[in-house]
Amino acid sequence: MEFALSEDQRLLQSSLQGTLENVSPLETVRRFAAGEQDVAKAIDTALAELGLGQLLVPEAHGGLGLGALDAALVQEALGFAVSPAAFLAGAMASEAIGQAGSTAQKYKWLPMLADGSVKIAVALTETVSMREGAGLIEDGGKLTGKALFALETNSASHVLTADITGKLYLVDLAEKSAKLSPLETIDQTRTYAELTLDKTPAEPHADEAKRGEALARTLGLGRILLAADTLGACQNMLEKAVTYAAERQQFGRVIGSFQAVKHMCAEMAAKLEPCRSLVWHAAYIFDTEPEKAALMACLAKSHISEVGTFIARTSTEVHGGMGFTDLVGLHYWFKRIGTNRQWLGSPEQLRAEAASLQGWA
Question: Given 3.40.640.10, 1.20.140.10, 3.40.50.720, 1.10.10.10, which CATH number is that of 211-357?
Answer without folding.
Answer: 1.20.140.10
